[in-house]
From TrEMBL:
PANTHER family documented for this protein: SIGNAL RECOGNITION PARTICLE 19 KD PROTEIN, SIGNAL RECOGNITION PARTICLE 19 KDA PROTEIN
Molecular function terms, GO-annotated: 7S RNA binding
Region (Disordered): 22-48
Organism, scientific name: Methanogenium marinum
Role this protein plays: Involved in targeting and insertion of nascent membrane proteins into the cytoplasmic membrane. Binds directly to 7S RNA and mediates binding of the 54 kDa subunit of the SRP.
GO biological-process terms attached to the record: SRP-dependent cotranslational protein targeting to membrane, signal sequence recognition
Name listed for the protein in its UniProt record: Signal recognition particle 19 kDa protein
Assembly mode: Part of the signal recognition particle protein translocation system, which is composed of SRP and FtsY. Archaeal SRP consists of a 7S RNA molecule of 300 nucleotides and two protein subunits: SRP54 and SRP19.
Compartment(s): Cytoplasm
RNA-binding among keywords: yes
Amino acid sequence: MNPERTLYPCYFDRALTRSQGRRVSREMARETPKAKAIHKAAKKSGLSARIEEGASHPAYWGKQDGRVIVEWKGTKEELMKKIANKI
């Protein structure tokens, strides 16, 4: 199992619906989250993370919002909840 998880800002965007790519609840989501904020939240949580600035989510290939690669052995859902609480 690959311990790296990829997180995109759209996963935490309150303005998006679940079908548009949001992966956390509206209560945990933020207005226009940035990859830098996700990276900072991962570091605050004591996780090893790196940011890829020019990357884009496949569904939003025109928006180069970046992405964060986090080393995590648990489920992606657990990771997203942990990060969302720190953003």
